[in-house]
Structures are given as structure tokens and as C-alpha cells.
Amino acid sequence: MLGEKLPAEKALAWGLINRVVDDGAALAEAMKVARELAAGPTKALALMRGLYWDSTENGFEDQLDLEYRTQRIAGASADFREGVAAFLEKRPARFSGD
Questions:
Q1: Which residues of the chain have pLDDT under 50?
Q2: pTM as predicted
Q3: Is-contact 95 39, C-beta < 8 A?
Q4: Cα separations (Å) of 93 from 41, 61, 85?
Q5: Could you give all domains of the chain from N- to C-terminal order, each with its CATH number?
Q6: Residues 6+ positions from 94 with CB-CB distance below 8 Å
Q7: Of 3, 8, 16, 80, whose CB has the highest number of CB atoms within 10 Å?
């Protein structure tokens, strides 16, 4: 609030950021994270993002109801079935976005 400089390590410790990288490594790290996200359950990630954005407009009860309904959508997806199968078969999941 006072415009003070905040070292990256302190921002990390406070939970304001989730990682610190060396100078010049930010793009490579961002691409790594992007690849991980793209290989993940993209439908579930999109649903979570929507819940996050909607949470600023909703009261507690409305948000809980929305999260309940969203869980049902995610649980009926092909990606959910793939995630469970991959877990049981002890293999990496191959999500399709469905």
C-alpha cells in the first residue's frame, strides 16, 4: 500500500506468487506451466476458472450451490473417467478435454 519494494522471496513466503525463477528463465518456466495445463483436464480447469470468477458476484450459499452443480458436470466428463482409470492403472492420465 505504501509502494514499498517487495523481494520475490518474501512475496513467495507470503503466498502472493507461487514460484520464483532465475533472471531470463521466466519464459521457459511459463511455457512449462502452459504445457502442463494444456495436458491436464482442460474441461475441469475451465470449470474451476469459471467458479473463481463467479465467486466475486455470489453469496456463500449461491457459490456452494454453483460448486455442487459444477462438480456434477465435471464428474460426468470423459476426463474424470480417464483420471480415475489412470489412477487405478497407475499410469499418467491422457485427458481429451471431453
A1: none
A2: 0.72
A3: yes
A4: 9, 34, 8
A5: 7-39 (no CATH), 41-98 (1.10.12.10)
A6: 82, 86
A7: 80
